[in-house]
Task: inverse folding
């Protein structure tokens, strides 16, 4: 019963952490979802807000469910994002403008729902196509300024949409007169104050419940101000300070034969640019958000799997009347930091989104426009700040000007023009910066290429045997995102081919420059090297290249910058020689001990080959009580203690063993579970003989096995004698 409980409790604890993490992320899903619904169903579509809220939370529930079940990142949480909501709003706005221009009395709801669902389904199909054909990696070759321009433009569109949500009017030169009345200016001022409060508080802390506290505080402050001014809730709604709440959430699937037949199909060519924008922004957001989660959580995702899962999620969301979305960085990392590391986190968000289909009307009835409008202004301004202000430090003048140009073009002439200009800029950037596409001139290792330092024959023999621990790459040409990504793939495969590698040297002597977007690939290289305990050394790194890599966070305390290749190789060689000379001395000491035990140098060598070397730190648990007894340990250096449970959850030491002693031999022979916990009292070096290797010795070398059994019996007899003496003393 106790054993089952110990196995069950971690599962319950993990599930509880997932639910709590998902609950924290659900707070963002609810607040963002309400603001996105208001953004899309604004202006002429505001009477149909109930359908927009239903579409939002259906999309949130479906996207969160599918991504939670299928993502290569188990804790990933998906839903509509600010960028995808912005382009969806532009798509529906373009449709409404064209329909009302042709027929002011034309019904809008069903065509809008069909357009949202159709664009989402097409987006999902394209994402699946990218994932299946692996064409999604082509987006990684899109120049960084082009992507930044598209995402910066979505931030601007979110701000403009927020103004429309608050005032009911578009911000244009022709409509500036409508913004002159005091009520409208007061609403905009309150929304800007709300956005500033969000920036000064939640933007800097990112606490799980900071956002709902701020929003609830804003609602309470607004209603308190209404009360002090003598404005009733009904009057506040009439004036426009608060939303007119929908009577209930209305769900409708628009896929009826009559509705499809009456759909204005002739407008699709005019909407093609906005449809391409939905696809492009969703695909780009999926890839960049996935990369952001990889960096923040130190996990590596399967890119093709993420595209396929996002595609399937969008197909199902569109079929059920939702709109496009993708995996969310903020929600995923918030859940991860709150303890949610499993798929139950995303399923919790899906369940809460489904419950919001009943609770959303009540929330909107008490929600001042400036609260959600301020949230939208904050989200759009944050996006603009990221791509217009922060990106300036990472981009050259030409790249930065091209990013600004794309934002202006999209805002003025739409996404079609932005796409065309982006393609032109991408081709020009590639032609100017990638004259040569091969980034590796040659590779080498420590066996074939060494420093100029003359060494003794013993040292040379060591370097000949262990020179493979040093791997080097001589880089060349201009490194941009595409070539740097191929460099990462090469390094990743090389580390798999040479698991013995411990030093990776990059020679930048022939590198003419590094594009700002290449820093992410170097961050991936660093993560792969850290996973294998490989040290990175950078040689002949130019100041401009060092600045680009340092600004991205790639260069840190564990990355060495060495002026010359000869000095870098000498440093690596010295560390290899020092390490293996120490190991040789340790192995000699072990061989002497085993020879003393077994009476034969040959038997000692055989036993060493069957043991595995283990290093443990002070306080580290070697085995736990109740574990299977599948190995014994020879303690070459250090000290370990045998611990048993005491009162109040503490433990007590019943025996301590120092160097040249053994532990665990009884379990190896009798195959009974461990009766006590073994813990290192100081940093120790042990050699483990597992059951499989012991059986191999008994089969291949019966004489050695008999010697080991004799030694084990002698050790246990000595311990039994000591125990009898102790008992005799205690009985006096």
Result:
């Amino acid at each position: 019963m106790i054993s089952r409980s110990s196995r069950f409790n971690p599962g319950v604890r993990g599930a509880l952490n997932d639910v709590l993490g998902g609950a924290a992320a659900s707070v963002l899903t609810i607040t963002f979802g309400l603001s996105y619904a208001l953004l899309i169903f604004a202006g002429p579509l505001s009477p149909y807000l109930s359908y927009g809220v239903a579409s939002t939370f259906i999309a949130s529930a479906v996207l969160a469910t599918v991504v939670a079940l299928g993502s290569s990142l188990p804790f990933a949480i998906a839903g509509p994002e600010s960028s995808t909501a912005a382009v969806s709003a532009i798509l529906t706005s373009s449709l409404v403008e064209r329909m009302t221009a042709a027929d002011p009395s034309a019904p809008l709801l069903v065509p809008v729902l069909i357009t949202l669902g159709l664009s989402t389904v097409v987006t999902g199909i394209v994402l699946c196509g990218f994932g299946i054909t692996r064409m999604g990696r082509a987006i990684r070759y899109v120049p960084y300024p082009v992507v930044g321009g598209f995402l910066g433009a979505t931030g601007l569109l979110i701000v403009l949409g927020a103004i429309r949500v608050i005032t009911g009017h578009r911000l244009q030169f022709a409509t500036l007169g409508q913004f002159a009345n005091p009520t409208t200016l007061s609403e905009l001022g309150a929304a800007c104050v709300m956005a500033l409060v969000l920036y000064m508080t939640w933007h800097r802390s990112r606490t799980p419940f900071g956002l709902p506290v701020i929003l609830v505080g804003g609602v309470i402050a607004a209603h308190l101000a209404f009360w002090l001014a003598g404005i009733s809730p009904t009057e506040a709604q009439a004036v426009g300070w608060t939303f007119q709440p929908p009577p209930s959430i209305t769900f409708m699937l628009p896929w009826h034969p009559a509705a499809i037949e009456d759909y204005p199909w002739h407008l699709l060519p005019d909407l093609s640019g906005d449809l391409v924008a939905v696809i492009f922004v969703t695909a780009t957001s999926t890839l960049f958000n996935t990369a952001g989660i990889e960096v923040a959580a130190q996990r590596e995702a399967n890119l093709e799997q993420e595209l396929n899962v996002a595609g399937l999620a969008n197909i199902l969301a569109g079929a059920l009347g939702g709109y496009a979305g993708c995996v969310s960085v903020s929600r995923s990392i918030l859940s991860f930091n709150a303890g949610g590391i499993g798929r139950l986190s995303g399923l919790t968000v899906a369940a809460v989104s489904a419950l919001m289909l009943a609770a959303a009307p009540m929330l909107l009835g008490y929600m001042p426009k400036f609260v959600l409008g301020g949230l939208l202004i904050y989200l759009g301004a944050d996006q603009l700040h990221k791509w217009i202000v922060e990106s300036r430090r990472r981009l050259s003048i030409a790249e930065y000007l091209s990013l600004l140009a794309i934002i202006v073009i999209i805002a003025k002439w739409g996404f079609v023009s932005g796409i065309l200009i982006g393609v032109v800029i991408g081709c020009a950037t590639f032609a100017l910066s990638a004259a040569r596409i091969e980034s590796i001139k040659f590779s080498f290792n420590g066996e074939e290429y060494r420093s100029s330092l003359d060494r003794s024959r013993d040292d040379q023999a060591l370097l000949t045997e262990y020179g493979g621990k040093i791997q080097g790459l001589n880089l060349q040409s201009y490194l941009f995102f595409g070539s740097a990504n191929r460099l990462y793939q090469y390094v990743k495969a090389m580390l798999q081919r040479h698991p013995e590698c411990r030093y990776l040297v990059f020679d930048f002597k022939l590198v003419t420059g590094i594009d700002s977007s290449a820093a992410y690939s170097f961050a991936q290289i660093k993560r792969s090297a850290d996973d294998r305990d490989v040290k990175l050394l950078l040689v002949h790194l130019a100041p401009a290249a060092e600045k680009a890599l340092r600004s991205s966070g790639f260069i840190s305390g564990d990355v060495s910058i060495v002026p010359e290749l000869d000095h870098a190789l000498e440093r690596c060689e010295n560390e290899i020689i020092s390490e293996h000379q120490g190991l040789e001395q340790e192995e000699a000491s072990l061989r002497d001990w085993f020879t003393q035990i077994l009476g034969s140098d040959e038997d000692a060598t055989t036993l060493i080959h069957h043991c595995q070397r283990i290093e443990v730190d002070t306080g580290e648990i070697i085995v736990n009580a109740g574990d299977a007894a599948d190995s014994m340990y020879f303690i070459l250096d250090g000290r370990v203690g045998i611990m048993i449970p005491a009162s109040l959850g503490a433990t007590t030491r019943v025996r301590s063993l120092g160097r040249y002693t053994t532990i665990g031999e009884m379990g190896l022979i009798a195959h009974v579970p461990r009766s006590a916990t073994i813990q290192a009292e100081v940093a120790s070096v042990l050699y483990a003989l597992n059951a499989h290797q012991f059986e191999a010795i008994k089969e291949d070398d019966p004489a050695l096995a008999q010697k080991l059994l004799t030694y084990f019996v002698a050790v246990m007899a000595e311990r039994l004698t000591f125990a009898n003496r102790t008992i005799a003393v205690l009985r006096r």
In short: Residues 2-40 form the longest helix (39 residues). Confidence is low (pLDDT under 50) at residues 1-8. The chain is about 65% helix and 10% strand.
